[in-house]
Amino acid sequence: MPIERFLAHLSWMQIRDLPKDPGVVILPVGAVEQHGPHLPTLTDTLLVTQVLNHTLAHLPDEVQAWALPAVNYGKSNEHLGFPGTMSLSAATLTAVLHELAASVKQAGFRRLAFFNGHGGNVAVLDAAARDIRATLGLHTFCLHPALYCDPPFPTTPEEQRFGIHAGEIETSLVLALAPELVRMEQAVRHYPDFPSDVAPLFMFGQASAAWLTRDWSPTGVFGDATAASAEKGAALLATATAKLARLIAAISRFEVAHG
């Protein structure tokens, strides 16, 4: 990431003098939690920060966007019971987001985007963003993992439905970004035996069942990690970077249309 786009690399006087409108501050929010026997527990934070780094490095100079250091921990209680999972409560994460947003507002910025790296954070970030908009007046946005985990290559129907954690997609991204952290010899394929006769009931969506990983996966994997490759991860990264760059550019100049 260019040094001038990482807000914490700048002095307070440099931050004071930034042209803040148009402009957006981006807060990555990750997680430290189990990702099967083959991926590091840092996976979500690693992916959200590295995807953002690559995106900001390719933004046009005229787009005003700056990244904050990541919030490394998220709401990960669905993965408790697996050593290495570190979880915040929804209340704690919400409080952190609100207090950081207040600091962003105090520094003179008008727009804040949460760049989320973990599915378990989605509900918390969406609720916090609405409340921050209402109480602080900041234009607040949420960018969720589906934005950079939509594969530009064919996947099986099973992977499309059940590959939600430590499967082909996440493993491919880590292979592309930090291959030294992947133990492919430990990669497994596991799909939960979720009942198929109660559609559309699923683990998320319009009709969802609250779920815990240990209810459905002894390894912590949902998907086929054995199908992953660095080449797939590089293709994912390229499409994600282009998509996110367009979104960040639009967010940086976003205004509410009145009347």
Protein architecture, described:
This protein is of the alpha/beta class. It has a domain at 3-158 and 235-252: 3-Layer(aba) Sandwich (Rossmann fold), CATH 3.40.50.10310. Helix content is 37%, strand content 11%. It has 8 helices and 8 strands; from the N terminus they run αβαβαβαβααβββαβα. It has helices at 12-16, 43-57, 90-106, 122-136, 157-162, 168-177, 213-216, 230-252, and strands at residues 24-29, 65-67, 111-116, 139-143, 189-190, 201-202, 207-208, 223-224. The strands form 3 sheets. Strands 2-1-3-4 form a 4-stranded parallel beta sheet, with helices on both faces. Helix 4 (122-136) links the parallel strand 3 (111-116) and strand 4. Helix 6 packs across helix 8 (230-252). The longest helix is centred in the C-terminal third of the chain and has 23 residues, at 230-252.
Low-confidence stretches: none
Write down the overall geometry. Answer: globular
The succession of helices and strands, N to C, reads HEHEHEHEHHEEEHEH
The average pLDDT value, as a whole number, equals 96
Rg over C-alpha atoms, rounded to the nearest angstrom: 19 Å
Strand-pairing-aware structural class? alpha/beta
Instruction: Provide a count of the helices.
Output: 8
What's the end-to-end separation, in Å? 39 Å
Strand order of the largest sheet: 2-1-3-4
Instruction: Tell me the name of the CATH homologous superfamily of the domain at 3-158 and 235-252.
Output: Creatininase
The amount of helix comes to 25-40%
Strands, helices and their partners?
Elements lengths: L11 H5 L7 E6 L13 H15 L7 E3 L22 H17 L4 E6 L5 H15 L2 E5 L13 H6 L5 H10 L11 E2 L10 E2 L4 E2 L4 H4 L6 E2 L5 H23 L7
Parallel strand pairs: 1-2, 1-3, 3-4, 6-7
Antiparallel strand pairs: 5-8
Helix pairs in contact: 2-6, 2-8, 3-4, 6-8
